[in-house]
Design a protein that fits this description.
This protein has a 3-stranded antiparallel beta sheet with strand order 1-5-4. The longest helix is centred in the first third of the chain and has 14 residues. The chain has one domain. It is α+β, with helices and mostly antiparallel strands and 133 residues long.
């Protein structure tokens, strides 16, 4: 894996997840801890807090990664959130189809904020309410 100093953290994480998909990790669940360890072993990223798998999910979003009418393009979509702390590697630039959920601050349950259809994201009215147009 490349560890070029001018690569940003998102590129490094993308490179590792895409390699894991090629190695068959898309066929099984993987914990956040396992992902963090694999990323640290294959890059020069050392701080656990720098790697937050939930920020790279196709099917989850939070205010920190929402940008207007779409997901922040700086963070590639790489993972599928299965349950708390458990993910499935999807890889980058996939024709993903599925519902996108968020849990707004102070809420006890998730809400649907949009949907991916064959790799294109479509926000709904709840997205606009939470994150703007």
């Amino acid at each position: 894996m490349g560890t070029c100093k001018d690569e940003n953290i998102h590129d490094k994480i993308k490179e590792v997840i895409d390699a894991l998909v090629e190695q068959g990790f898309d066929d099984r669940e993987i914990t956040a801890g396992e992902l963090i360890t694999l990323i640290q072993e294959r890059t020069d990223i050392r701080e656990d807090g720098s790697i937050m798998p939930r920020d790279y999910c196709y099917n989850r979003v939070n205010k920190g990664i929402a940008a207007g009418n779409t997901f922040d393009v700086v963070r590639p979509r790489l993972l599928h959130y299965e349950e708390y702390g458990v993910y499935r590697c999807i890889g980058s630039n996939k024709p993903y189809t599925g519902i996108v959920k968020a849990r707004p601050k102070g809420e006890k349950s998730d809400t649907i904020v949009g949907e991916w259809i064959k790799g294109e994201f479509f926000p709904n009215e709840k997205w606009e309410e939470l994150y703007g147009k």
